Every structure is written in structure tokens, then in C-alpha cells.
Amino acid sequence: MRNLTLTLAILGTTALTAPAWAQDAHKIVDEPLELTIHMHWPRSQGYDETYPVERAAREMTNIHLIDRTAGKNSTDHNEAMNLLLAQGDLPDIVGGNRIKDAVNQYGPEGAFVPLNDLIEEHAPNIKAFFDERPELFQAIASWDGNVYYIPYLPDGKFGRAWYVRQDWLDKLGLEQPTTVEEYYTVLKAFREQDPNGNGKKDEIPFFARQWEEVIRLVTLWDGRSSGSDTYHDFFVDEGEIRHPYAQVEYREGIKNIAQWYAEGLIDPEIFTRGASSRDYLLSENLGGSTHDWFASTSGYNVALQDRVEGLNFIPFLPPASVSGVRMEEHRRIPIKPDGWAISYMNENPVETIKYFDFWFTEEGRLLANFGVEGETWDMVDGEPVYKPEVLNSDSPVNSQMYLVGAQIQRGYWQDYRYEIQWTSEEALAGIELYEANDLLIPDFLGVSFTKEEQAVYDRHWPSIMTYMLERQQAWILGTGDVEADWDSYTNTLNKMGYQDVIDVMNSAYKRQYG
After folding, report:
1. Where would you find the membrane-spanning parts of this chain (predicted)?
2. Cα(276)–Cα(141) distance, rounded to whole angstroms?
3. pTM of the full predicted structure?
4. Domain that residue 341 falls in
């Protein structure tokens, strides 16, 4: 009943009235102006004109967004974007999930409006943001140097952390591991010394919900792992783009991961168990260590307190690598390929960029992050605080925000205060621990290709990545030997066009960031 009442309150048809001062401060046009929008994102194939957030923004700015999303019958955002572009009749605003590549490809050809001068002349809040973060402005630019979209900009630094069963360490008389060698000793003890006390050798020392996290272990041997985004697999080393899966350090890491797997220290179902692994292995008192998100992982101590006696699953500092380097490779990416752009058919680009700028004002940012003041949150001692019915709902806070039009893939600057309110004390303590130790490594923000460079990438990279992942899994599972296979592996990569891809990556990188 509580959730139903909240949903009705959030989605009710009563008018939402912004304070008069806010209306006056943010009004863009005297007469209401309608702008059409394509907004295709994972949780909604379209833009809901009844979002409370939209209605409040409409009252403050006098701009009214009208949904004209293409491909509403598809959940594939790329397919929807391709359909929209094929139609040629673009709405005023094109936004949603992963629009960067399409916008930066077709922007220089005239499909989208360059925003550089518009930002400089009419968007003081967006300009102020990028003046403080010029590297992000470089990152969103197309190959011609122009910016064609305003991105969704996440907030906060740390996302994932290393976790260990402190209760198991205490039971076995072990300290938290500080090096890769000590981590091996801990995992070995978890496997051999029955810390769950059931008399069975059923403990899973290291597990992960995403198999990519097991590859992150290569960092313990001075390698680099890989993210899941198209360009974030790559990294910059001494001014040159490289890919981790072609480096000697990666070979050493995979060799050791294969050894750990053979010794039973890594979940034997790491490649197949999937998203349920954390729920299952912790609730059954089987899992010992992982690398996962702060906010969600720390919540298990409370969630399972009646099921697993003494469960104390806590973050610990990354083990130092073989050369003594302590690093956290995963971070909250500061810029997403999501956001929105102004199409060439828009007859009101100045008013539109002013509307985009509204979301970077203090009031607009609060609206985009928390919903409508008085509806889902209140200002308490100068801080936005969610109402108790939001925080105590059985529905996750972010899911509630999506329903009201907050936290969606428009071009806006996220506010970490939105998440910190529902993050456990253990997670907050872990974040503070990581923050104090300066563990993050520089993030590669991607490149924008010319049409010719994109053709090279598209011709070679999909098959190269498939081959890399096939060999990676085979080596870990023991159906190949990475040391014996390495020369053949690198030769095959080069025959498949690996160096051609690296060359266009470096060409694009030096043009964009040089």
C-alpha cells in the first residue's frame, strides 16, 4: 500500500507549481515554446510529457518537450537511432542512451548543430562546468573539433571495491591481505580451512557477478584489465594508446589467474553463474571475496543478518601488485555517451541551448537528480533530503526517480548526494578509506573517429575482440597455455588488423587531446 500511495502521489495529475521566483529566474521565452524530442533509453522508449520533472521544468522555463521518439517498439537504442536518421525528419532534440557515436559521426555532415559558440554565448552554466573540466570538453568533441551534444555527467569517484569476509579472516586468525601474495594466502585458507564451519570444502574464495571482474585480477601482476564499454578497454601509456590484452603484463596476469582457477580459488562457474552469484554465494555462506559496487555490496551485512550469523563482508584496500603498486582500476566514469543534441531541423537553437543550460543551474540540477521539491524531497539545512516514504520504500530510489523523470539520460550533471542517502555506513566508510589512499588511475575518455578511421575500427575490431575473449577464457579454464601460445596469439592479432586499429586510435587520440 505504501508503494502504491507513493506512486499515485508521484504520478498524480495535480498541477506542480514552481515558486514564482524560480519561474522568473529561469523563464527562457515569454510565450510557451514546444520542442520535439527523440528520447530512447533503457527504461523507457520515449519521453513522457507527464513526468513531474518535465512539468516542473516546463513551468520554470516555458519550454515544453513533445515526444517524437523513433523505434518505440525496440529496446535497442542503436536500432532506434538508425531508424530516426534513416527517416531524415529529425525532431528538435535528439537524446537518450549512447548517442555520442551517431551524433559525432553525423554532426560534421550537418545533421546536428555545433554547440561551441552556442555554449559560449548562451549557456553560462554549461560553460562554467566545462571551464573547470576542459578535458571532458575535449572528450565529447567530434573529430572536427566541434561539440555536438551535452552529455550525462556522473558524479562521484569510486564505484567498485575489493571485498572480503572479515568474519572468516577473524575465525582463521588472518589479517586483511595487503599484497598479492597475502591475498593468495587468504584465498587458499578460505578454500582449505573450512571458514563457514560446515565440514565441507565448498567455499568459493573469489567470485564475481560479471566475469570481467576476474580479469581485473591481472592488475595484481601489473597488468591492466578491461572495461565493458567500447573504448574503455584501451588505455594510455606514455602518450600512446594500447590495449591491455596485447601486453606482456597481461600474459603474466592470465597465467596466474589460470593457476588460481586450477587450485579452486576462483568460482568454477565464474563465466556462467552471472548476476545471481553474489546473492547466492553470500546467502549460502559460501563466498569469500569479490570486487563489486560499494553501495549494493555493503548492504548484505544487514540484509542477511538473520540468515548468515556474523556475516561481515567489508571493503579492503586493493592488494599491492608484484611490484608494490596499489591501484583501483574501476572508477565512476566522469562522462557518459548519453545525453542530447540539437538537430539541424531545430528552428530555435538559442532557446534550446538555454533550455539545456537550465539543467546545469542549481534548481535544474536538483530537479534532474531528486525530482520535484516537496514531492520526493525537501531542503533540510541547505541539503536535498529524500522524503522518508522514498527512502523506506521497497522500490529502489533510482527506480522511483526514473518514474518521475529524474536520473534519466538527458544531458545533465548528476549529484552524488542523490545516492549517498541510501548508501550504507559500511560503504561510506569504505569510500572514505579508498579516498584517503589516492588509489584511482587516470581514466581514458575515448576518441572520436573520422569516417575513414571508423571504417578501419569496424572492419577489424569486432573479430579481434572476439578472438581475444575466446583465448582469454580458454587460458583461464585450462584448455590452453598462455605462455606457450603467446607468440602465436600476438601474430594472429596482427594478421587480424590489430596494429591498424591501434594506429587509428592513436591518430584520433593525438588529434583530439594533443
Report:
1. none
2. 38
3. 0.86
4. 33-156+334-414
